[in-house]
Amino acid sequence: MNNLYNESILVCVYYGPNGERLIKRGCKIANMLQAPLYILTIDPKPFDELDAEKIFYIEQWKEFANSHESAQFIIKDNESRPVSKVIAEVARDHNITQIILGQTAHSRWEQITKGSIINSLVRDVPFVDLHIISVARSIRDEEGIYEKGVRAYLIKDGDQYQLSFNHDKDTVYEGIFFKEVNTDFDNGIFRFMRDAETLQVLVTDGTVTELKNVDLKTAMNLSTADE
Questions:
Q1: Beta-ladder partners of 193
Q2: How far is CA 7 from the centre of its chain?
Q3: From CA 180, how far away is CA 168, in angstroms rounded?
Q4: Where is the UspA domain (predicted)?
């Protein structure tokens, strides 16, 4: 890619469906400017201690980067430094000119709204443009709607799919299952990737009747924030 405008874009993502939205925004800007795109995530834990849900999102982001010639995925794990310091270091290392951050209410990035990260980045990398994007929340658990996601699999069963928590030779899709609270049955949402697209399908009593992407705002109780 010919970087006609000498621009480099850095998208900072945290776990949840909002990461994909931020990446798409960064990709739009990168394509418009014919600039390289970097996708960064930061975690205080070592990679081998991350849970299944986090690993799933990381795999998604890696796949996106691998499918786009101008994109590169960067993970900074086992990080004890402030988020702003890590972002600034990556920005300097890759000559970043524009940084895209997500503003959410329930993540480490909530510090952004308080100005601390912004002030630090303005001080540490003063000649970088900052884009603060309002994004929808991930599955809300403050009202006890869904349990924490766990790795799960779909197995083909006639015209339907059966949810399983064990991988075997008949596994068709691998993803994350978010179970509804206060139920003894496997009811909830199964999130997985198909053809580089993230899908969320309904699970009823351990069965997926169709691979139809559900309306996130209703089925997952997301906020109504839009681009």
A1: 198
A2: 24
A3: 25
A4: 8-126
* SS3 per-residue string spanning the chain: CCCCCCCCEEEECCCCCHHHHHHHHHHHHHHHHCCCEEEEEECCCCHHHCCHHHHHHHHHHHHHHHHCCCEEEEEECCCCCCHHHHHHHHHHHCCCCEEEEEECCCCHHHHHHHCHHHHHHHHHCCCCEEEEEECCCCCCCCCCCECCCEEEEEEEECCEEEEECCCCCCEEEEEEEEEECCCCCCCEEEEEEECCEEEEEEEECCEECCCCCCCHHHHCCCCCCCC
Quickly tell me which residue has 């705002």 as its tokens: 217
Q: What is the pLDDT of residue 95?
A: 93
Q: Is the pTM of this model over 0.70?
A: no
Regions in the chain scoring below 50 on pLDDT = 104-114, 136-144, 216-227
- pLDDT, position 127: 84
Among 114, 116, 93, which residue's Cα sits nearest to residue 104?
114
Residue pair 37/70 in contact (Cβ under 8 Å)? The answer is: yes
Tell me the sheet residues that pair with 46: none
Q: Distance (Å, rounded) from C-alpha 217 to C-alpha 224?
A: 7
pLDDT in the model for residue 145: 67
- Domains of the chain, residue spans: 9-134, 150-219
Closest C-alpha among 98, 150, 155, 156 to residue 127: 98
